[in-house]
Task: structure prediction
Amino acid sequence: MNLVPLTQCNKGESVIVRTIDTKNKELKKRLYSLSIIPSSELLVAHISLAKQTYQIKNYSTLIALRQEEASHILVEKTA
Result:
């Protein structure tokens, strides 16, 4: 299993969250409250030009994440 940070994914890629790699409890709690949890499926819907903001689709919800937040989400790319 090859894990990469969400920030290394491209627009349109589908991924599966494998782990949230942070000791920051507030960030982990925020991501969990947005249903970004291990085994959830995400779609990278949009990436800003400066790669500072990532828009991801989780179920039918679009969520905007800062680059700093997205870098802690380790995912596995799906085929």
User: Anything to note?
Assistant: The two ends are 13 Å apart (CA to CA). The first strand starts at residue 4 and ends at 5. Helices lie at 25-33, 67-70.
